[in-house]
Design goal:
Blueprint: E1 3-6, E2 16-20, H1 40-46, E3 50-54, H2 72-89, E4 96-101, H3 105-114, E5 120-126, H4 146-150, H5 173-179, H6 182-189, E6 197-202, H7 212-221, E7 228-233, H8 246-263
Parallel strand pairs: 2-3, 2-4, 4-5, 5-6, 6-7
Antiparallel strand pairs: 1-3
């Protein structure tokens, strides 16, 4: 598997952020291809965290071996093994924090439910919920609705779409076929998640329901999580981390990581 890795320059990492991109994207989604200040990897390293943005199974280097991709359940198993290897090779600090976008949220939440990752501190998910507004289709296609994935063009820095080749990727057909099963799968998994969870829905999110009744149901399903936070990101479309709102969202996500570390009794003082 391929990935982008950023680490603090002058000290061991306080913890490690694992970023999982959505369908039709790549690890570069989290690395500010148009504006450097939108990079999650750079911001995390500046704040003392290691950050690894993974090309999920079926993307990047694994695309040749997995041309059809993997289901969310299969991806969770593959990613668990890969992250175990990462922890063997690198200092991950206090543990791992999963930050996932769109389809990437599905294996992330499954890994949290299965409890197979060592020292999982929490999960932060954007662009993913438990109820679609309409049956899922391939992002970026006529049926998939380009505007459903992006929203108004003014939400993105100039040049975003010219640099898109570095970010956008083919959606493996097996992944797309698996997407429709997610609402039922989440219903079976949610009650087993025992770490802090944060969901963010963009102001112009159109793939997922985020009206008050839907969010009340989403929260109630996470009955074992010690903390559940649900927020809305203003001035953002589905692809939050590529837009002007990216830095604000990333700061909030890393703030949630700080809070999750406190929940686990971990702080700066633990390194002294």
């Amino acid at each position: 598997m391929s990935a982008l890795l950023a680490r603090p320059l002058y000290a061991p990492p306080r913890a490690t952020v694992v970023a999982l991109h959505g369908a039709g994207m790549s690890a570069a989604y989290f690395h500010g291809q148009t504006r450097p200040e939108t990079s999650l990897l750079t911001l995390a390293a500046d704040l003392g965290f290691a950050a690894v943005a993974v090309d999920r199974p079926g993307y990047g280097l694994s695309s040749a071996e997995l041309p059809r991709g993997q289901t969310a359940a299969e991806q969770a198993a593959t990613l668990t093994a890969a992250l175990g290897d990462l922890a063997d090779r690198y200092d991950t600090g206090a543990g791992l924090f999963l930050l996932a976008h769109s389809f990437g949220g599905k294996p992330a939440l499954r890994m949290a439910a299965e409890g197979t990752l060592p020292a999982l501190l929490g999960v932060d998910v954007s662009g993913c919920g438990d109820a679609y507004t309409a049956p899922p289709t391939e992002p970026g296609t006529r049926d998939g609705g380009w505007r459903r994935s992006w929203g108004p063009l003014r939400l993105y820095p100039p040049g975003t779409f010219r640099s898109g080749a570095a970010v956008v990727a083919r959606v493996p057909p097996g992944e797309l076929a698996d997407a429709a099963r997610w609402p039922a799968e989440f219903g079976r998994l949610a009650g087993r998640i025992r770490v802090p969870v944060r969901f963010t829905f963009a102001e112009y999110e159109t793939w997922w329901r985020h009206d008050p009744p839907a969010l009340d149901r989403l929260r109630s399903r996470l009955s074992a999580a010690p903390r559940v936070v649900i927020e809305h990101q203003p001035d953002a479309g589905h692809n939050i981390s590529l837009g002007w709102a990216a830095r604000a969202y990333h700061l909030k996500a890393l703030g949630f990581l700080e809070e999750s570390m406190r929940h686990h009794g971990v702080g700066r003082e633990s390194r002294t």
